[in-house]
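I hope you will forgive my troubling you with a question about protein structure. You will find the record immediately after this paragraph.
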Amino acid sequence: MNNPKDRNLLCFDLEINSVNAMEPKIIKRISPKRWHRIFLAILFLLTSIALYFSLPHEARFRYEYQKGRPWMHATLYAPFNFAIIKSEQEIKHEKDSLLKGEIPYFVFADSITQRAISSLSNEIDRLKAAKSINFVEGTSLKLKVMGVYFDLYNVGILDQDFINSSNLSGKNRLKILKNNIGKEIQISSLYSLKSAYSEVRRRLDDLKNLHPEWKTFLDDFQPERFLASNLIYDREKNQQMEEKMIADISTNHGIVQEGERIISQGDIISARTFPILESLRISFENSRGQNTKYILIVLGRIILIVVLLLTLYLFLLNIRKKVMRSKRDISFILITLTLMIACCSLVIRSGTFDIYVIPFTALALILRTFLDTRVAIFVNMIAALIVGFMVPNGYEFVLLQIPVGSIAVISLNKMQKREQLIVTALIIFISYSILFIGISLVQEANLAGIEWLKIKWFAFNAILTLITYLLIYILEKSFGFVSDITLIELTFSNQKLLKRMAMEAPGTLHHSLQVANLSELAISKIGGNSLLVRAGALYHDIGKIDNPQYFIENQSIGINPHDDLTNEESAAIIIDHVEKGVELARKHKIPEQIVDFIRTHHGTTKTGYFYQKSIITNGAEEVEDKNFTYKGPLPTTRETAVVMLADSIEAASRSLEVKNSENIRNLVEDIFRQKVDLGQLQLSPLTFKDIRVLKDFFHEKLVNIYHVRVNYPVGTIKNDK
């Protein structure tokens, strides 16, 4: 085996070269390693800028405090003069009280009165002519009827619906504007349409009793037709008055003088001192953001972001070098980190919801799904520290998010079933609640002082965490990751390619299943992704579907199409199954991580049978090695290396004439020695210890598969079952 450091460098160069082939010509002039460093520098710079604008622009008040809890800092004196700001609730209460006592304005609409009286006059004249009432009686009647209406309209008629509206609710007086002169009167002295109609009917009934002809006339008269509300709500005037009253409301309770003691250490933050502290905080943050010291605030924010991102960079560089070599992985980490912090910033600035409604643990769960536990926990910690600088009680926030995020990641382990996420959401809710109660008890030493309503936000948080399932699918497709759920789906026997293999190349499918079983168990012995190994092993020979009859596991007894081909032609068909497998997999949108198993499972080895046969037939000098050699590449991960070994061992074990423990041991040793001697494992991260464990495993497993029995001494009786 080569030096591990050199092997890592070779893997790095191989990955960079494959990416570099798709980059512009200008970038190609830069060495791959230097370009990768430039890419990382640009990526971290853009992340720093995004996080800079996510942080609050004003200065941060250095003290943390909560109402009803002790003041844990030194005695606080006012550093400057500042006003005690009223709370929003106080201002709202004062505003509601003023509006409740406001007297609404109505306009006396003369035009409505004139139209109604004019219509009334015409109607009386029409009825007089129809009833043939003499001129004197008719004129007298007309004057009396119109007098009734004049009286009502002069007093004022309100619309019935308006009387019941919110504008007059709780009011007993209003102001009437008539000819730009306002007059305040009792609402009870005015008429509504309903009361005006009753009054007209009463007074007209009195007129019926004065003269027989008037009764005949008034029986056909319809008084309601000439009633209309002539008091109109003056919306513009009322709005002006409301705005003036609101503008006159004072937003302050008073002034705190510089040097005045605000609170002493150990004092309880009461309902009186809390608004003073809040006022000092707001005044401090606003004033510092507007003076010449703002440059120091900017510098402080830059230092905070740079130090935290540098911490993340050093962690990945020293602990997770593989992530640092992958543009996709590091981009994914920084993008998801930035998006989570930006979401938290928006919620904090809006003030609509509590910060704990944000499913913060979703960041850790997503990173765990596509990367690993250690990266997920560390990035969750960095994100919590940054957001903790934004929220009012940063220490409490950090103390909650780091442990809960870690618990969530560890509890999820591998997300292979949908119900796992539901269980994790429940664990998140319980963890938040228990930790919050614990923190509150330390601070309060009193169950009554715990903000129990805050636990509802933890419930919302846990429910929103379920969107992780949807986000995983979106991110998987966007960044080209493969989740455990996708790997499980790929191994279902009803997958299109696997069904086709079962129909057209059943022998290959049986071989692939055997390799999958061996590989899955083998990788679990040395550590690796068993689901990825199983999926890769099932698809590694998918290219044999195109010409299944040319592969021995699919041939009928006595029929071999290679008999009619040259050794070179046969080798070309055998070698071509790798390329065909890659094309077929990509056509069916099989993830690239699975395609890697297809490309690497033969590495750069030779088609041994036809190569040796050609040497025997033509002589070693006449044989061109390239015609019998697979194009590679070599496996670069534990998973692909294990599948290469399992594939060779499973296929070779079938050709053993005598399948006993010794022969199987020799077979496994020979195959491992060949792979090492030919350099097929030089890019893989397998260690000598891994190889020793794998040798023992493959030997033990093949012995069990072929039911190898011990030789009983002569004369003993075998108890066969």
